[in-house]
């Protein structure tokens, strides 16, 4: 499989195991075999790019440690090409107000997501994991340039209809949802990235595990689902590797002959 120039990687459940998310940072949850695999891809001339629902601030330590400066964040709404911002989209004031009204009316705890910072109001009981450093702001205050919002559901089968025009809730973890624009997804951000990079979709491979990776899989030339992936993701993937904490990334790149063993 020597035709691939770029490999897009989801973070949670793909590069990093979800085990220990409440106690460990994202970087601490990345297996050593995954770090080795990233280095191997670079040595083979394949550029690793992060494609995540998280914001840039939450993954800063990860990308610094892995030596990656190309990122599709916030489900495609914030994009870095060689460290330079090439896309930065955010909600209108009316959209944020409508989303907040819906979430408060339905007693759903949430936080606001900007390019580099997460915020929650003082009285919010939103439960964050260890990778989410959240700043408190007074009740009623809304940050500027909100890209997305995050909330947690009671269980993994919860169906969410925000009933806000132009807005959707997308499942990014077992009980975690991102609130984003209807037309936003990782594939949209990837297309912006590839246009700048002058690379065809057929020359791209992607790795993921959750529902917000499906559009990304449909966009690229070849897709790899983790062994721990959502069944919906496995159904559309070209290949299913082992679990992230069972050397899933390394096993995939070796099995697919992206690098030499």
From TrEMBL:
<dbReference type="InterPro" id="IPR006379">
    <property type="entry name" value="HAD-SF_hydro_IIB"/>
</dbReference>
<dbReference type="InterPro" id="IPR023214">
    <property type="entry name" value="HAD_sf"/>
</dbReference>
<protein>
    <recommendedName>
        <fullName>Hydrolase</fullName>
    </recommendedName>
</protein>
<dbReference type="InterPro" id="IPR000150">
    <property type="entry name" value="Cof"/>
</dbReference>
<dbReference type="Pfam" id="PF08282">
    <property type="entry name" value="Hydrolase_3"/>
</dbReference>
<dbReference type="InterPro" id="IPR036412">
    <property type="entry name" value="HAD-like_sf"/>
</dbReference>
<dbReference type="GO" id="GO:0016791">
    <property type="term" value="F:phosphatase activity"/>
</dbReference>
<dbReference type="GO" id="GO:0005829">
    <property type="term" value="C:cytosol"/>
</dbReference>
<dbReference type="GO" id="GO:0000287">
    <property type="term" value="F:magnesium ion binding"/>
</dbReference>
